[in-house]
Each structure stands twice: as structure tokens, then as C-alpha cells.
Amino acid sequence: MDIFMVDSNSQDAEDPPLDPEHNICGSAHNPPGANCASQGGPTSVATCKAWFWALWRKNQEWLTEQLSKSTADWLGGLTCFVTGGGGGISSEATPNIHNKRDWYGEAQYGFYDLLISKTSILITSINWQL
After folding, report:
1. In Å, how far are 6, 31, 117, 127, 130 from 123, measured between CA atoms?
2. Which position has the higher pLDDT, 99 or 14?
3. Which domain of life is it from (predicted)?
4. In which domain, by residue range, is 10 found?
5. What is the pLDDT of residues 5-64, one digit of tens each?
6. CB distance 44 to 30 below 8 Å
7. Most CB within 10 Å of its CB: which of 23, 54, 67, 104?
8. Separation of alpha carbons 10 and 7, rounded Å
9. pTM for the complete prediction?
């Protein structure tokens, strides 16, 4: 199995004043003069969105090339999006567990167990149970 990891931070990279509570390039929660260049990232909040979207396009080209080279029986993609698990980030779970109409998942926390063989993939969602 080949698993390809792709950076998807571009999906949360907006112009600095937009979406202040969910924008990694936002001016609301990045300090003045923020600079990630020492780690290979954007040089400023003003260049942040363009930097992440350029990385996204570069990742797409790389992924297309790697997928065409793969001889694996299974191909997988891995990226990361905030799940709403806490720490002040947005949550997909309703605060009222009895409100099933707005309930988007089994719980705020959980993970997946993958069992992969040559002929099958079994995915089990393991979550906190009510």
C-alpha cells in the first residue's frame, strides 16, 4: 500500500481580515510581524494565503506524478483537517446530546482502525459511546 500525504492547509488560508476564527493566515490571531520563514513557511501574514495555495498546487502536481508511478495494490491519501476535538477550535458536535437533528457524528472524539490486506480494507470507527 502506498499512502500519500498532502498538505491541505490552503483550505483554511484566507486573506488576513477574512474568517477571523478559522483562518490560519488571519490577522486576528497572528501577532504583528508573524513570520514562518525560518521553518520554510510564509514570510508574513500578507504572503501566507498565496504561500499555502502555491504549496497546494505543488502538492497536486507531485501527487499526480506519484500516483502514476505507483505499483501498489492499494493507494491511500492522507491529509489533515480540524475535527473539532476541542482546544478552542470549531466543533462539529452539538452541545446538546439529545438534539439528534443537528448531530453530525457519534462524538467529538474518536479515531479509525484500519485493517488492510491484499484483498480488502476494513475501517472501524472507534468513538466515545453515549
Report:
1. 21, 41, 12, 13, 21
2. 14
3. Eukaryota
4. 2-127
5. 999 999 999 999 999 888 999 999 999 999 999 999 999 999 999 999 999 999 999 999
6. no
7. 23
8. 8
9. 0.71
